[in-house]
Write a structure and sequence with these properties.
Distance between the termini: 49 Å
CATH class: Alpha Beta
Order of helices and strands: HHEHEHHHEHEHHEHEEEEE
Radius of gyration: 20 Å
CATH topology: Rossmann fold
CATH superfamily: P-loop containing nucleotide triphosphate hydrolases
CATH architecture: 3-Layer(aba) Sandwich
Number of domains: 1
Helix content: 25-40%
Structural class: alpha/beta
Shape: globular
Length: 307
């Protein structure tokens, strides 16, 4: 006997006043967090950026764009390790051991090249890695380089990673690689990517978590970047709460500390100002970002607006 399949959920009908309970709960949580000094949700760990997004990554999608060499994975890794809560990092392109090596470089201030050169014994490298792991005890990985990570699996493992914590951050590296390998059935790359975006948005709002995703730039925006720079679908930017666009001038030289200037532009922001440009310094050898000394700038254009 065939079982009747469960009907697909449909959007509930609400009176506007029905949203009051959730609004009050959010306000109480924000008030308690501010009064106690506790984090109200996962943060980026970059003070100016956190201030611009209202001090936490809100539930929903958050995009990281950038040209080659701008440090997209390094920034995503740093945010995941510094967000103040457990994090689930879905890696689709880089092996877990390489991610751990890069995390070790940043957390222990050991040049990445030294961890690869053979100048240190396996025991020495392991000792450094253990120190780095202790600095991010809630950091979990889904290795999507070896098998698919479908949306339901991401949701279920995020709940496990969250444990007893109030929040968890999900990171997708990268959106295009994940959608292609997640088992989503779309006739074209465009359709598959749209299905992936919709699935991630459903996860974010059903279990109320922020999802930070890295997006490849499309060919037309490889140099210029901007809100519409995501490769494959215009729904990338329209479905996001925030979009952070990293830009590096490949002709610039490093400073005396080996840092390159990176401009982080908030191309979209539903929780604060849009068009803000925050100067960052990126040390590739240490896989580390820090905010620069210059003031953040706001540059408003017709293409940078709250959506």
């Amino acid at each position: 006997m065939n079982e009747t399949p469960n009907p697909q959920p449909v959007a509930p009908l609400l009176r506007f006043s029905d949203a009051l309970t959730e609004l009050r709960a959010d306000a109480d949580a924000n008030f308690e967090a501010k009064s106690s000094g506790k984090l109200r949700g996962p943060i980026t760990g970059l003070p100016r950026l956190d201030k611009e997004i209202s001090h936490a990554l809100a539930p929903g999608l958050h995009g990281v764009y950038g040209n080659a060499g701008a440090g997209k994975t390094a920034l995503a890794m740093q945010i995941a390790a510094s967000c103040g809560f457990p994090a689930l990092y879905v890696t689709c392109e880089m092996a877990p051991s390489e991610l751990l090596r890069r995390h070790t470089a940043r957390a222990t201030q050991t040049y990445l090249g030294r961890l690869k050169s053979g100048e240190m014994s396996g025991a020495e490298v392991e000792s450094l890695a253990r120190r780095a792991l202790a600095a991010a005890p809630g950091f979990c990985l889904l290795d999507a380089t070896k098998a698919a990570a479908p949306p339901t699996h991401i949701r279920d493992t995020a709940i496990i990673a969250k444990g007893d914590s109030n929040h968890v951050l999900i990171v997708i590296d990268s959106l295009q690689s994940w959608a292609e390998s997640a088992g989503l059935v779309g006739g074209t790359e465009y359709e598959t990517l749209n299905l992936g975006i919709a699935a991630l948005r459903t996860i974010a709002h059903s279990i109320r978590v922020p999802i930070l995703f890295i997006s490849e730039r499309n060919r037309e925006s490889m140099k210029s970047g901007g809100l519409n720079a995501g490769a494959g679908s215009r729904k990338i930017e329209y479905g996001a709460e925030t979009v952070f666009d990293l830009d590096r001038d490949m002709n610039d030289m490093a400073n005396g500390a080996g840092e390159f200037e990176i401009t982080l532009k908030i191309a979209k922001n539903r929780h604060g100002s849009v068009g803000v440009q925050i100067p960052l310094l990126f040390n590739g050898a240490l896989q580390q970002f820090r905010e620069g000394d210059g003031p953040g700038k706001v540059k408003m254009t017709s293409k940078t607006r709250n959506l």
